[in-house]
Design brief:
alpha/beta, Rossmann fold, 6 helices
Length: 186
Amino acid sequence: MNPFNLSMTDVRYPARLTERLGTHAPQHLTVLGSLELLALPKTALFCSSRCPGGAILSAYDQAQRWRDEGRCVIGGFHSPIEKECLEILLRGQQPIIICPARSIENMRLPKAWRSGIDNGRLLLLSTFPKNIHRPTAAFADRRNQLVAALTDEIVFFHITPGGRMDKLCVQAEAWGIMMTAPPPFR
């Protein structure tokens, strides 16, 4: 199970990245898993780190629906709610795309991730070189831009006004990405 690099000049490189990110599109992606998942309709999952209880329950319910419907979900799965949603999704058979805010080279993969990769239903993508092992706020912002640029639809379970998710929401609106959120998400 070895990741490989996908350069911007490769025909398999997602055109959507250059369309939406322009000159800020990553020159290379590190890939582990089935690249075919990028061709599927994707829903991105985002939630601010601090989240009210009502939004938490809504997120869990939605993750279960996506799992049962077989919906391809993409995200960084970094905030506590996003991590819990990933656990729910991993119990299903639907496709999942995980974009960590760090390198995936030499990353220790949980057993469920390895199983998903082996079964062709899990894809890991990273824009970070192999010397980046710890996520930072700046890396998370870059990762979130990648996730948003790749997706067809975004669901924000909670956005802290003025926070990083709020800025991402504005960018996604400018790109014309369909966004939904269980009320109230801000």
